[in-house]
Amino acid sequence: MNFPLLSIIRNGIATQKQAFPNLPDEAEGLPGFSKTDCNPGECGKCAALCPAKAISCDQNEVKIDRGLCIGCSICFKSCPSGVIINDRSTTTAVFKREDLIISNKTPVITPAKPLKMPFRKSLHVREVSTGDNITDFEAVAASNPVFDMARYGIQVTASPRFADALLVTGPVGKAMQEPLRRCREAMAEPAIVIAAGTSAISGGLFAGGYAEANGVDSILPVSCYIPGDPPHPWSIIYGILLAMGRISKAD
Amino acid sequence: MENNSGIFTRIQETPENLKTVAKKKLNQPGWRFGHITARVTEAGSFVVETLLLNTREGKGLVIESLLPENNPEYPSLTPDIPAAHRAERALGDFFGITAKDHPHWHTLILSSDAWEPDLTPLSPTCRGKREPFLFTNVTGEGVHEIPVGPIHAGIIEPGHFRFSCAGEIITHMDIRLGYQHRGVEKRLTEINWQNTRFTAESNSSDTAAGNALAHSIAIEQIADINPPERAQYLRTISLELERLANHIGDMGALSGDIGFSAGAALFSQNRGYVLGMAQLLTGKRTQRYYIKPGGVSRDADSSTLKKLAENCIILKKTMKEHIPLVLENSAVIERMENTGILSQRMAKDFGIVGPAGRASGSGYDARTVFPHGVFPEYAPAPAFYKTGDVLSRAKVKADEIFSSIEIIEKIIANIPAGEYELKNLPSNLRPESYGIGITEAWRGELIHWITTDSKGKISRYSIKDPSFNNWTGLGIAVRGNLVADFPLCNKSFNLSYSGSDL
After folding, report:
1. Per residue in B38-52, pLDDT tens?
2. Domain span at residue A138?
3. Contact: A134, B195; criterion CB under 8 Å
């Protein structure tokens, strides 16, 4: 006999209570910095090993561009002095592209909020995939019962006409640039654009080729960047809430 | 061109004879069409390479045909071997090579107006303009067209479908892809081989483990290295976890597409459970960058493996409870049965692979023939259905969910101790060689084909995603169905757009 209701009741509530938890211990997140010091002028191992050229070392400073980072974990696995560490935080989204570049020297600066933040209570999102299907999978996961972004007032809509925000995943190759532009034009103002995933932020591994897949902000102005390849569903939800202005410092 | 794996043989044939030789081989039992691609020699001439696979003995045959310098065209294989029709059109797009007498000769991937009309990205010289994309014009009383896409209503990838309908019934569907073309194959020849694995995975990044494994096998054939045995076991767990996660996700998506919310909710949660197992093994839910040439990027200690084995037992119990909720539910069966039928003949002719092929009586599972990970030793009996409708595709996936759990349990019980990676990989690949990695990814047979030049640099990297041929299968399966059943048909194939667009 077939009793779906019984299974649902037995299954209980699946939704995670704690918002934006750190990833579990076994997980590998994005690279971050510990408080230890190193000598990047002499070592430079991380910059040489990084396949995405996201790390630069000069005399006394190591810089990581999370907008280029593909999350391969090679840097923190091979860092001899323990300066680069595994950052398992899911609160990684930022407002400005340059805020994704982190350094071991500069103390953390809390970025200023943009003046225009038109959406506070709820947001209707149109997802546009432009070449990286794994971020789509995580975006689907963000609306499943476990992460359940609908509880924060975030809905995925079927048409840009109903949408307040565009969530763009993928590097936007030449053939997708015009459809993306027209999708943005079809939206009613005010509207915002969110770039999710490394390839959407910078084109990632595809940047600079003949397909001109160099990320979203070469096509449209972007309000919020969510790093990660792909970002965790919690990172995506955090990024959307950040773009809405729903994240205060206490979160 | 060398390959020491003992799987592939290579013969030369003139372009004129290619068709006859290939056809003769394919008429023998067990042979199927693998892939057709081209490369440019260092002297600047074009070589068309055809891969045929023997699915009984696990062997492959590469037929190499040098095209005349002044006239890069050859007689098309498609009239005799329909499975080649998309790959030949891709050759036209990327190299400007013409397949003479191709019945449907127009652009496939570079179909958007945004591309320069004479762009041939993989050819050193310009070869003139492409044939523009043409939609099939269906005429008749009451026939109307419904254009859909490239941007769709759900969270899925972009692609344009044009339905020609008589009333509510789809008589024909044209599929126009290429919106996500981002130059993967060209990029893979521009970077040094140690970094190619990252881009090779991004071919269709939801198949990270399958792509990385096919890439690693191809590189290992060229570099003449053998990964440690423990690595092979860990790779297989990763590959099977990916299959589990995606098949379970598909069961949920199929339920969602027919409005059975209970199934959609339960299975998306179960998928998350498998992704958690994947994170335990590889550090990432999506298993990216785990499998690499020479092994895997991290070891699994005994407590991790023990936990995975415990998770397998729980998962098996959950699946035994949840899968019948969908597949034994009369309301679900009513929608899925006899919907989107792909006949056995069509599936064979167009080279449909993976669960879609096995639902249409193909019985081909690369795990049973081609060595990858611990296969074919641990290979399951291929799932086998003949009706080719949405229900049989769902049943194939359900069968494979259980067989994958069993494989993982068996592997964890038998995993040998030892190294998980080779420490010192050669800095250069062997020159003038080729490697072909064939894996059964969750969507089906996936081929990575790498060729090196006289300096040991990768000169050609060709990928055949399982979706590449299966798109034709979807186009055939939707004919005669309601427009409203299209999402269901589409989801039962669940094809990758980016893997096809590259």
Report:
1. 999 888 889 999 999
2. 123-244
3. no
